[in-house]
Structures are given as structure tokens and as C-alpha cells.
Amino acid sequence: MKAKSSFSLKDQLFNSDKVSYLTTLIVAVYPHFAQQTFHQDVVSAFSKLELKERIAHIAVCLHKHLPDDYQDALVILLQSLPPELDSNKTDDDFGDFIFAPYSLYVALYGCRADYVDLSLKALKEITKRFSAEDAVRYFINTFSDETLGFLSDCAVDDNYHVRRWACEGTRPKLPWAQKLTIDYKRSLPILDILYRDKTRYVTRSVANHLNDISKVDPSLVIATLKKWINDQNQTEQEMAFITQHALRTLTKQGHQEALTLIGFGTKPDITITNFSTSTPQVKVGDAFEFSFDMCSNRSQKLLVDYLMYFASDGKKQSQKVFKLKQLELKKGEAITLFKKHPMRLMTTRRLILGEHKIVLQVNGQAFGALTFNLVEA
Fold this sequence. Notes:
The chain has 377 residues and is an alpha+beta fold. The protein is built from 16 helices and 8 strands. The chain folds into 2 domains: 81-261, Serine Threonine Protein Phosphatase 5, Tetratricopeptide repeat (Alpha Horseshoe), CATH 1.25.40; 270-375, Immunoglobulins (Immunoglobulin-like, Sandwich). The protein has a 5-stranded mixed sheet with strand order 2-8-7-4-5, with no helix packed on it. A 3-stranded antiparallel sheet has the order 1-3-6, with no helix packed on it.
């Protein structure tokens, strides 16, 4: 049984007020724009559409209400853009989702041989307000050489949103985006530039990109990270962040080379006792709680995670590894660890009522399991 959620991300990001804001920007540079008709066309369909469908719907409505000539329409859209995102920030500045239809408009109506250069330059401007990472994939798949060359130049752009876009747009497994048809290795020259970046927003994207590749080619990722570490073109602290974040999937899987590269490659020599839960039954919205005692039988570094198997609705069982703690213990040293795991409704993961299980993992090795039952609030 699926737990019900009252929060709607699609309604928060795409609603009547957001569409009004968009129309106000367009009318300011194109007075002939049918503001009320466009607003009605867009909003009247929202109740039937999911988030990505709303983006596509707005893009189609823009095409309907803007001049038929693509180049004329594009000039209007670019002139209507608000100021660029604050270039003084260094992280988590995603911009406003309401401009996602702009980039999709470019992808739907400007992904043609005679418009490639014009369209890519337009996406570069749009991505300074909201990332055009999905839209550029239309061009990567259709005009790979031209687009990868353009994105390579973007990797050294002064604007960190543009640099990040070069990385996100070429990610092999970018969430909510169409699949790329090019070989994932073709994006490595872009990563070789961007891993040196001084902005965490960019280096996190590089790490996410490598994490995508690690799911199909672990050896390539480990070799790439080793090369970057040896080249010393990034600070030790930031390189450590990139390495650990890029290898998170492999370390959760207990991949020996990955664990070794982040300093947790040795098999743990520990004793686990009192692994138990005080919440064998959890209501939706509450937290599952567990604790255990751990004694180190020698001096060692330990990476403690737990793997959660979510209740199944008859399909493939969902599972996810969660970080708990990194620590270094001396021989004979003991520690008690306690964790509260919220079982909240989220837009990114649905909850199924029923039995859940966690498996404790230390340096990728399993050390016991617990179950709990998720019930309605």
C-alpha cells in the first residue's frame, strides 16, 4: 500500500503566479504577446499534467503565441530573461524552474543544422538563469561534435553556471533527462578541465558525473581519480571531496579499490553488540530508531553505513545505502552509535507500507540486520 503525500512539487514550481511572472517578462519586451490567452492556455491544463509535462506544455504554448519565425521568437525569449543568477555565490543556486520551458523551446524548435550555433548560444544564456542541462542533450545526440566542442569552451567560461552546465549536460545518467546516445568516454576531456574548478557547485557536478560512469565502468573512474590525485591540480581537500563523492556508489557496494582510494580498504576487525531498535513499528512521518555498540579489536579507520530495503509493492524491491559515520578507533576503543531515520513522504521516493529492513555495513562488509513495519499515521 502506497503512503499518501499532501505536498506537490509540480504545483510549487509551476502554478498560476509563476506563469503570470513569465508573461509579465515577455510582455515587457514584446507588447503584442497575448498575455491573458497564453496564461489561460497554460494554466487550464495543469491539473492533468505532471512536472515534466508542464514544462513541455509551456514550451508548446510559447511556440503557439510567439512569432512563427524561430529566430524572431528566440530574440524575444532572450530579451525577456531576468538578470543572471548572482555570480558571487558558489553553490546551490539553482535558479527558477519557470525558465525550464525556455530551454526546452530551444531544443524542440531550434535543434536544426541551420540553427545549431544560434541555439547553443541561447542555451548558454538561459542556463545562467536555470540550468539548460536537459535541453542541451537534444543537441549532443543530434550534433555531437559541434555540441561537445561548444561545451568544451564553456568549461573555461567565467560564469560558474555555464561551467557546471558543460558537466551536467553530458552526464550519462542525468536524473529527469533524456538518455545520451554518445559514448560516455567522450565527455572525459570536459571533466579533465572542470575537476580543477574552484567552485563546489562545479566540482560536485564532476563527482556526480563520475559516479554515473562508475555504474558501468568502475575501472575507468578509479583510474581517472588516481590520475587527478597524482597531477595535483586541485587542492587536497577538494580532491578528497571529489573522490569520495564520485565513489559513493562503489563504496556502498563494498568495491575494494574504491574503499582503498578513500582510506577504508581494510576489512574491519570489530565486534558489534546490542544492535537493536526501539521502534519496531513506525508511522509515516515518524522516525525509525536504532542503535548498536561497536568495539575495535585493532586501530583502524571505519566507514559505517546502513542499507535499507524498502517494502515492496510486488515489483522490484527498492534499496538505498545511507551514510552513518566515519571514524578512526584505537585498539580496544568502543563507541555507541544511535540513528533516527525519518520516514517522511518525499517527492523523490514513494513509501510503501509494510516491512522494511536495514543491514549494517562497515567498510562495505555486512554486520547484522533489523526489520521494522511502516504503517499509516
